[in-house]
Write a structure and sequence with these properties.
The structure is a homodimer. By secondary structure, chain A is of the alpha/beta class. The first copy, chain A, has two domains: 178 residues, Rossmann fold; 155 residues, 2-Layer Sandwich (Dihydrodipicolinate Reductase, domain 2). The first copy, chain A, is 41% helix and 22% strand. Chain A is built from 13 helices and 13 strands. Strand 13 of chain A pairs antiparallel with strand 13 of chain B, so a sheet runs across the interface.
């Protein structure tokens, strides 16, 4: 039986869904994977933090948080440390970084991850920022300290992209990527193509809880730009950042333009792509009219799709159909299981 | 540096393409994976066999075969053993089973695999038969003898299906599968929808070299039935065989019927699915009219697509675009690398 101790940094929607998933899979983890996962530290943005020598009762932490209280009321000794203090002093094996995205800098998540990897603590994150801004540095740091760094949830939620390439396509070189990666834009475009205004469509996305806190991150293509940067950095060896993406959002599009495409049997998608050029990896995000011959034609609503072009395996496309919060939580869960698997391999 | 010794059982198109891939990746294998792959035995159907104590010069074996000669002319001591004798007496670590499919029985491939796994030799195969008829027995045998048994190439060539579930979706339960899995039928249907006769369309597929030796295996849905059986056995715990599939092929379809679907904006695909029922896993293969809302609508020509329905990850679809022989060879190559990886983990 192995025990993995976790520090949860950030306790928003994804972290709480992940906590519920952990609770529901306790028995399965123990019986099928011989694994006990104990949360020993939690840091929230504005409701305090907890550092414990022992397993925290995650159910109680969730109850406190969801009834609007500070989690510091839990009753362990060390409360109200900052996230960085939690990372530096807690006894966790794995830090789960789920703070909100700051697209301009990748902070504070990058500092959190740097601190954890620097201590030899493995890291799972669903935050695109650090990967878009500092992938190279963080991956090297992990290698130096022998810690693991996983981030499946940063692109297309739990749908395997990074694990797909790493664990099922050994020896394949990724020559290019192309896809529809932003759920909000895709939903807004899908709604507008059926005649709704952008404002109504955006409200619909907001009600589903899938928009970024600042809607311009979605609408102006920043989220897709960050994702394509992550793909280029991790899969194609680019050392890029989101500002280098040739980026156009969907803000300026009118219902009339979109209906025009539909009337000619086509559809509009926000397409992100990365491809090698002589001077590095070229990255682009922008609305494109696609015909029925394109995989993206069938990607409606909040679905996403990504095509990986490779040397030995040709073109492989993977499609995620209308995901919920569960899928992002699953990405973290799956990464954690891979970390456990790899830790056991290294153990004597 | 690790050395893996291979016995190639079957030396048809896929085995020879795999051999060329091995030759072209020698340096990469040594430098990036610290792996030397030596072929020490080859068995052909009608051109003899070779068993050697040392690495065979694969380039020379290929040259002999492709100039129409018996490979026994190579000049090692043991030639012309049967495939089973090669498996029982050669010194290989991994047996690569690539003999032709016999859909009625899964033989002789099943006997070959049983003999290899029984000796503790790991096995890679792209042959559906043994998986469709004897998966359960062979998987248990591998577990008992501590050998590895991999078969990515049996469904959708090199596109990861089994590795996708095993290595990137830990803990996920597969609740059902649905897809278009037979390249020949899909190409024939695509051609017939543009007005060609079934005979012309079949000839086109034959020229591409993608048909089974006996075209009825494709046209009557047997190949798709075998594939969906493999998926049900491996991913859903069924203990099924291809005869249990509710099966209709495309033989009876007329160009007029197909054009009728096209004229109403729809398309015809040969759809294979497996889903749990109270009395086991229900499996079905048959032509279906699909609309633009279906992923299968966009799967033209020799492309394939499979949707996996899971508990934690929702619906994930993976699409293979117009594969060539290279992709099947890559399936074997990728399986071999996973075997190497797992062997190292187990090593002290």
């Amino acid at each position: 039986m192995t025990v993995l101790r976790l520090a949860l940094i950030g306790f928003g929607n994804v972290a709480r869904e992940f906590s519920r998933l952990l609770l529901s899979r306790r028995t399965w983890l123990r019986e099928s994977r011989e694994l006990i996962v104990d949360v020993v530290a939690v840091a929230t943005r504005s409701r305090g933090s907890l550092i414990s020598d022992y397993e925290l009762d995650l159910r109680r932490v969730l109850e406190l948080y969801e009834s609007g209280k500070r989690i510091s009321e839990y009753g362990v000794e060390k409360t109200d440390s900052t996230a960085l203090e939690v990372i530096r002093t807690s006894d966790a094996d794995v830090m789960i970084e789920l703070t909100p995205l700051d697209i301009e800098s990748g902070q504070p998540a990058t500092d959190h991850i740097r601190a954890a990897l620097g201590r030899g603590m493995s890291v799972v994150t669903a935050n695109k920022g650090p990967l878009a801004w500092a992938y190279d540095e963080l991956a090297s740091l992990a290698q130096r300290t022998g810690s693991q760094f996983r981030f499946e949830g940063t692109v297309m939620d739990g749908t395997p992209i990074f694990s797909l390439v790493e664990r099922t396509m050994p020896g394949c070189r990724v020559l290019g990527v192309e896809g529809s990666l932003n759920s909000t834009c895709n939903l807004v475009l899908t709604s507008m193509m059926s005649g709704r205004s952008m404002e109504d469509a955006l409200n619909e996305a907001r009600l589903l809880g899938i928009t970024e806190a600042d809607p311009s991150l979605d609408i102006d293509g920043w989220d897709a730009a960050a994702k394509v940067t992550v793909l280029a950095n991790v899969l194609m060896g680019a050392r890029a950042n989101p500002k280098l993406v040739e980026r156009r959002g969907i803000r300026g599009l009118s219902v009339e333009e979109l209906r025009g495409a539909v009337d000619s049997g086509r559809r509009v998608r926000l397409v992100a792509r990365a491809e090698p050029r002589s001077d590095g990896v070229f990255m682009q995000v922008g609305p494109e009219v696609v015909g029925t011959e394109s995989w993206l034609w069938g990607v409606n609503g909040t679905s996403s799709a990504l095509t990986l072009k490779t040397d030995m395996l040709g073109s492989t496309t993977i499609v995620e159909e209308n995901p919920s919060l569960m899928q992002t939580a699953y990405a973290v869960f799956a990464d954690l299981l891979v970390i456990d698997e790899k830790t056991r391999e290294k153990a004597p």
